[in-house]
Write a structure and sequence with these properties.
This protein is about 30% helix and about 25% strand. The protein has helices at about 30-35, 55-60, 75-85, 105-115, 160-170, 180-185, and strands at about 5-10, 25, 30, 45-50, 65-70, 90-95, 120-125, 130-135, 135-140, 150-155, 190-195.
Length: about 210
């Protein structure tokens, strides 16, 4: 079974104010670092889904990128378009283009789950107490042990994940991450331990991580 990486890099960066994928990171930039991380011997190829022409150029010039696809207005549209060019019967790891700090160890754990054909997400436990709110009024304080913070990559057999997205479109369901589409279809999803350092660049103040 071949494993592919799908890099979702079509965000508009409204909260960042500039293209976060092109921000400098050491001697490269964010998207180049992400592509480098997934240039792993166990990964057959990388599909890059983006809307920025400079990001697309970087993808076309990268030796491990097998396809550069123009993304959609919403993340679900971009992921679906990427899944459609990945061969049937393969496995896919979906990763945020703005998450350049994935460690080699976390990637190896992801690949182990992929080789077992598990549906999974990288996740970490909550450190802080969480509150269910109605405006500014507390409704409840659920036990944080029952929750996890979801990261990427998230993985599944390509055909199963594409079916989950297609069913969601038919039913008008919009998830917040890839695994939510699988969960909506009743598929069992497991947690693979992530890391605190696997951060996603989202806000201007996140430049301090670079």
């Amino acid at each position: 079974m071949d494993i592919y990486a799908l890099i979702a890099a079509s965000g508009t960066a409204r909260r960042m104010g500039e293209n976060k994928l092109l921000l400098p990171l050491d001697d490269t930039c964010v998207i180049e670092r992400v592509l480098s991380i997934f240039s792993h011997e166990k990964i057959r190829g990388i599909v890059l889904v983006c809307r920025d022409e400079e990001v697309a150029r970087i993808g076309r010039e990268h030796p491990r990128v097998v396809s550069v696809i123009e993304g959609g207005e919403e993340r679900w549209e971009s992921v679906m378009k990427g899944l459609q060019v990945i061969p049937e019967g393969s496995y896919v790891l979906v990763h945020d283009g703005a998450r350049p700090f994935l460690s080699a160890e976390a990637l190896e754990r992801s690949l182990e789950a992929a080789e077992m054909k598990k549906c999974f997400f990288l996740g970490i436990p909550l450190r802080d107490t969480i509150k269910e709110m109605d405006g500014t009024v507390v409704i409840s304080t659920p036990p944080r042990e029952s929750f996890a913070l979801a990261q990427t990559p998230q993985g599944a057999p390509r055909d199963l994940l594409l079916e989950a997205y297609e069913r969601a479109v038919e039913r008008g369901f919009v998830g917040t991450d890839d695994c939510s589409y699988l969960e909506h279809m009743g598929v069992k999803v497991i947690l693979v331990p992530g890391e605190e350092s696997n951060l996603k660049i989202t806000y201007p103040e996140d430049r301090r991580w670079l």
